[in-house]
Specification:
This protein is mainly alpha-helical. Helix content is 69%, strand content 0%. It folds into 4 domains: 66 residues, 434 Repressor (Amino-terminal Domain) (Orthogonal Bundle), CATH 1.10.260; 135 residues; 84 residues; 74 residues. Helix 10 packs parallel to helix 12, helix 16 runs parallel beside helix 17 and helix 19 packs antiparallel against helix 20. It is elongated, with a radius of gyration of 24 Å.
Length: 406
């Protein structure tokens, strides 16, 4: 920490900056900088702002260096959370290696964040996440215990227990609200973002679009990570596929633009989602699509004849059975088979896609009145006003900082 503080005060001195003005920029009281000179630590949130002020858009490398130099438990815990939340696999791995022989809270961090590290590296089947979280014992730190509960909820997603997720998340959010707005503000904000990360896919599968948009909005507005912002645009875009074509494609395009050139796997998925939405609305594909089934789906939507070889592409693809059934039923323009697709999606708890197929059925047979009733089913009743009442606006004072370069 001494090296970090020296860099900060050298920067202030070398650039003839008034210390009080610098304190305002990084979100702390001038007295905190004075106390730091006398040996007290600066909290992680202040360090995050300081490193951006000092390094601009190239702050990431310096911040990683600072995270590895932190020598007090609370700062190390917050650095672990930052690395994990922003999906910085490289930094998280270095921190785990550096602190592997630590004691106390830092040792507990290595246990909990070690599990998250293995999860983002796909070192075990996703369906095992909850069981592995359940197996963690001996953690005493209350915020880490809360994080374990969040991990368990994420694990429920892979077991398709979406309604249970929503119930547990409400309880977890109540616990997060009780964390201090002073000492644990950074953790508090991060955990609320983690809740939105968990809410969004569950609400998406349940086709609860109004609630989904509220959590997508939180992810977009976090301004702390490109990955989180992109996820927000993805869910916002998908939520509007039926209602608003332009808004859907605009948000999905933003999701793709953010991820393009960063993570090949994520960018490839983002392009496929964009092209799926474009195909759904009878638009041509954006160049670069690697998923052959999306290419065939596009031809089907554009009412172009597909070959037997292209049908085999769908039948032999890695797509799940509901999607294979949907694509082939759509090609046949068979209301009966599309109805079976709805049932298959619903039984697989993919109600969002079940709704999309219902829309296709309605286009083929506008007189099927039962469809209108099915389209109105909502499995999670929580209105926008209730969400806003409970919403904790995370990192709202970071609006003038560009953190999404990472």
């Amino acid at each position: 920490m001494k090296v970090i503080k020296k860099e900060i005060f050298d920067y202030i001195s070398d650039n003839d900056i008034v210390e009080k003005e610098f304190a305002v920029k990084i979100g702390c009281k001038p007295s905190q900088l004075s106390d730091a000179k006398l040996g007290k630590n600066l909290n992680f949130r202040v360090l995050l702002k300081a490193v951006i002020v000092m390094n601009g858009k190239n702050y990431k490398k310096k911040l990683e260096d600072w995270c590895l130099r932190l020598d007090y438990a609370e700062g190390i815990k917050h650095a672990f959370e930052y690395a994990s939340l922003t999906k910085n696999e490289k930094l998280l791995g270095k921190m785990l290696d550096k602190h592997k022989n630590s004691f106390g809270v830092v040792k507990e961090c290595c246990i909990v964040y070690g599990l998250l590290y293995k999860h983002i590296r796909y070192e075990f089947p996703e369906t095992e996440l909850k069981d592995r979280a359940d197996a963690i014992k001996g953690i005493k730190n209350k915020t880490l215990l809360l994080l374990i509960e969040i991990i368990k909820v994420i694990g429920l997603y892979y077991k398709k227990k979406y309604l249970r997720m929503l119930e547990d998340l409400e309880t977890i959010e109540d616990s997060i609200k009780k964390l201090s707005d002073k000492r644990e503000l950074f953790i508090k904000e991060c955990y609320f973002i983690r809740c939105s990360e968990a809410y969004a896919p569950a609400l998406f599968q349940l086709n609860s679009l109004d609630s989904l948009r509220q959590h997508a909005k939180r992810l977009i507005n976090t301004n702390i990570s490109a990955t989180l912002t992109a996820a927000g645009y993805y869910y916002m875009g998908m939520s509007y596929i039926v209602e608003d074509k332009e808004r859907a494609l605009q948000n999905l395009q933003l999701n793709y633009e953010i991820l393009k050139g960063r993570h090949h796997r994520s960018a490839t998925h983002a392009l496929s989602c964009l092209n799926f939405a474009r195909s759904y609305h009878y638009e041509t594909l954006i160049a670069g699509e690697e998923d052959e089934t999306i290419k065939v789906y596009n031809k089907i939507k554009l009412n172009k004849k597909i070959t037997d070889e292209e049908k085999d592409i769908i039948k032999n693809s890695q797509s799940s059975i509901p999607f294979k059934k949907y694509y082939l039923s759509l090609e046949e323009s068979s209301v009966e088979n599309l109805s079976e697709s709805v049932a298959i999606f619903a039984s697989d708890k993919k109600l969002f896609y079940a709704n999309l197929v219902l829309q296709d059925i309605k286009k083929l047979n506008p007189n099927m009145l039962v469809i209108d009733g099915l389209l109105k089913i909502n499995f999670y009743q929580k209105g926008e006003n209730q969400y806003e009442k409970n919403c904790y606006h995370c990192f709202s004072d970071f609006r003038d900082f560009n953190l999404i370069c990472c």
